[in-house]
Amino acid sequence: MMRSFVEVAAESHFPLQNLPYGVFSTADEQRARCAVRIGDFVLDLAAVEEAGLLATRCFNQPALNAFMAAGREVWTATRQRLQWLLDAETPDLRDYSALLARALLPVDTVTMHLPAQVGDYTDFYSSRHHAENVGRMFRGAANALPPNWLHLPLAYHGRASSLVVSGTPVRRPCGQTRLGNAKAPLFGPSRALDFELELGFFVGPGNELGEPIPVSQAYRHIFGFALINDWSARDIQRWEYQPLGPFLGKNFATTVSPWVVTLDALEPFLCDGPAQDPPPLPYLSSKNHWTYDIHLEAQIQSAAMGVPATISRSSFRHLYWNVCQQLAHHTVNGCNMRPGDLLASGTISGPAPDSYGSLLELAWNGTQPLDLPDGTQRTFLEDGDTVILTGWCQGDSYRVGFGEARGTVLPTSDVNR
Ligand code: CA
After folding, report:
1. Which CATH number fits domain 121-416: 3.40.50.620, 3.90.850.10, 1.10.10.10, 3.40.50.300?
2. For this structure, is 330 an active site residue?
3. pTM score, whole prediction
4. Distance from first CA to last CA of the chain, Å, rounded?
5. What's the pLDDT tens digit per position in 1-51?
6. Between vectors from CA 44 to CA 43 and to CA 45, what angle results, nearest 5°?
7. Given 13, 129, 130, 329, which residue is catalytic?
């Protein structure tokens, strides 16, 4: 098995088989630049590039967009080069102590940033279990899935400006809500703040306006994946979403994990998605193994709890629409994608109640409160609650993981109190 000269713990998400990319800065050097993660260290790729050990010229930048734009051949060649450089048997970097001293840094000494400058963020709705749960709650079992759902991957355009990196606190939003069937709405803090357990992918080279990406070529445009928490104010959303869709109930914050796991790292974990019936239209027809067996978890930790409690265990493999279908559908009308655009999966719920990916479903719209270890209950999030999303693929005695996407709920801004 491949082994690095950098020590990697057995349970680590970041062995030599992973090598996810991110963007970091340090107190000494506040200029953000690109890195790769190995064990509990980040390797400064700007420094490795400058030392002449890489063929690329795109890492001395505060975002991965240039590398994302370079395309699949460059991604694969760079990954192979980094695996070779970090291998225990390769002396080039291992014995270059002057470079290692400034380029290999303990991760707890660096500040992570968003991995890309995201021009556009889109959120899909591709988990059938999630869509059916929400439909059963609000439209009844007979109309659980909207009539279009099995024919196209539904999505809405999100807001890129409020994407935040893991660790950034999230303020409880205020807005208009309507209690029951009251005549007039109220204004105030959301009483139904929720998380959504998702994965998102960053777009690579992208396409010209008017030139769709065919489903068969979509994988060439997908750089890699990160965990996404698409925070949601259910009460604001419920009042505002018809007929134009989500707006202020969704766009106040979306948390992104800092490490982008590449398709090459995930390849050993490719698996079949759910059977699609009816068969999708030809432009969406793909070989049905374009999904990955990625174990996902959501944890919650109140201010009174010493350790987080796991409240959901799900899997990316439950997604009905795969990422190639999402990208093909998003561009079929000629809509252009740019390097660094972020397309998220939508809440990933599994079939069992403990695999649901939101509090809305876990507590069934407030009717089945969740018991927490501190003796309190939750139907939605309280101020001071921290939500932690994590996920990994289990290999043969190694893991390819995503780290975490973490955020703590802060009280409403003083402006609105
Ligand atoms: Ca969502």
Report:
1. 3.90.850.10
2. no
3. 0.97
4. 58
5. 789 999 999 999 999 999 999 999 999 999 999 999 999 999 999 999 999
6. 105
7. 130
